[in-house]
Structures are given as structure tokens and as C-alpha cells.
Amino acid sequence: MFRNAVELSHFYAAQAAGPGGVCIDATAGNGNDTAFLAGLVGPEGKVYAFDVQQKAIASTKKRLEDRGLQERVRLIHDSHARMGLYVRELVDAILFNLGRLPGSDRTVYTKSCATIAAIEAGLGLLRRDGLLCIAAYWGDPICNEEYREVYDYLKGISPRQAEVLFHEYINEPHCPPTFFAVHKV
Question: What local confidence, expressed as pLDDT, does residue 147 receive?
């Protein structure tokens, strides 16, 4: 049914956002999630896309231009932990794809301290019934540390603030990413 955590992110985001909506891609990467969100919100919507790597911003910009979606997106070369400085409106959905940018500097990863700060900021920006979706990797020591710390943080969120759903592929080889959906109540 779902091939991976990214497809789950897209499925859940589509339940929370639609034409005219506002979304955040907390980790722009190669622009796949950003382009998906830009298509979801349509020409009247808005997407904020964050990344600390200039290569990711450039790759995302090109993907958006190739699809004619650039007018809907504000690309921000900064940490997702600082999203609250840029976004001043309620948001329908926020996507995180943790780990590292495929094909880039293998020493640059998302880090749990910034990711948890971004989740906290994102929860403050989400409208009621908004969704925060996280694809988290655990297959190498650096990613595993972030995964465990994010898991522990999400587990501690009050159910009065948000419902947290966890998906895990338990019979797949090669350490597939896990998925969290955080529904603001």
C-alpha cells in the first residue's frame, strides 16, 4: 500500500492541506516534498521550505522552476529550528525528512536539538487539526541518535496538545525510515 515513510507523509499531508493552504517543508532536500506541497496548496497557497545547505536550496529551486511552482514557495536558507522567525501564519501541514541530503556532503545531517526545536516551533504554528509528518532514519549511528531523541520527545507530548502516531516497517531490509504523524488537537 505505502512504499515508504515519504509516501505516508504525502498521504497524511493531503488530509490536512489543500488548495489555498499554507505548508512548511522543514527539510527541503532535493525539493520532492516541497514540490508535492506546492501542488497540494495550488496557486492560491503558500509553502515555506527550509534547508541549511545551499545545494539543497538550489536543487529545490530548479525542481520548482521545472514544474512552474516557484511562485508558491518561499525558499529559506536557514535551519528549520528557526521557522518561527519566518512564518507568521497558521499552517496546515509540516513535513520533515530527517537524516542527510542524498548525494551531498555525508557529514551534514539533521540534528536532534534543531529538529526538536523545529517540532516545538511547528506545533506552535499548526492550526487546530493540522499535521506534522516526520520521516526518521535509524540505520546509521548519527541518524539513530536523532531518531531515538525525536521519538522520546514525541512520546512526551501531552495528548491534550497533540496525538502522535508511529509507523514502522518491521519486516523490510536495509533499515527503512520510520514515520511519525503528529495531529494537533
Answer: 85
User: What is the helix, strand, coil percentage profile of the chain, to 5?
Assistant: 40, 25, 35
Number of Cβ atoms within 10 Å of the Cβ of 142: 17
d(CA 159, CA 94): 19
List pLDDT tens digits, range 96-151.
Answer: 998 766 666 666 667 778 999 999 999 999 999 999 999 988 767 666 788 899 99
For 73-126, the DSSP string reads EEEEES-GGGGGGT--S-EEEEEEE-S--TTS-TT----HHHHHHHHHHHHHHE
Q: Are 74 and 46 in contact (CB under 8 A)?
A: yes
CA dihedral 152, 154, 155, 158 (to 10 degrees): 140
Residue 115: what are its φ and ψ, rounded to 5°?
-65, -45
In tens, the pLDDT along 92-101 reads: 999 999 876 6
Cell of 135: 520521516
Decide which of 5 and 15 is more confident: 15
